[in-house]
Amino acid sequence: MDWKIFATIFVSVFIAELGDKTQLATMLFAADKAVSKYTVFFAASAALIVASAIGVLAGTLLSEYINEKYLHYIAGVGFIAIGAYTLYSA
After folding, report:
1. Which of 13, 19, 26, 42 has the highest CB neighbour number within 10 Å of its CB?
2. Alpha carbons 5 and 13: distance in angstroms, whole number
3. Residue 88's Cα: distance from chain center in Å?
4. Alpha carbon 57 to chain centroid distance?
5. Are 71 and 63 in contact (CB under 8 A)?
6. Which contiguous run of DSSP H or E holds residue 40?
């Protein structure tokens, strides 16, 4: 395993997930006294694992047809578009 790539991906996903809607929803579920905190933790963890697996699968499939360099450009433009839309709608 390449630990440098592992750390880069971990830090990137960790920072992206902090304070997002998913984390807020998880906090709301955990705030319910009637709900097991273990259930919230394992369900949220499983959801992130499945979402990540879909991302890995999609990236793998797209890389078969699109050059990696262009995938980086597409991802960059996508992030800029999302950011611009967020600023516009705020």
Report:
1. 26
2. 12
3. 22
4. 14
5. yes
6. helix 37-65
What burial letters (b/e) apply to 61-81, b meaning 16+ CB within 10 Å? eeeeeeeeeeeeeeeeeeeee
Q: What is the pLDDT of residues 29-74, one digit of tens each?
A: 999 999 999 999 999 999 999 999 999 999 899 999 999 899 899 9
Q: Is the pLDDT of residue 19 over 90?
A: no
Report helix, strand or coil for 34. Answer: coil
Return the pLDDT at 90: 81
User: How far is CA 60 from each of CA 53, 66, 69, rounded to the nearest angstrom?
Assistant: 10, 10, 14
Q: pTM for the full model?
A: 0.72
The residues, ordered by sequence, that sit 6+ positions from 29 with a Cβ below 8 Å of its Cβ are 35, 40, 43, 44
Beta carbons of 6 and 14 less than 8 angstroms apart: no
For the chain, state the CA radius of gyration. 17
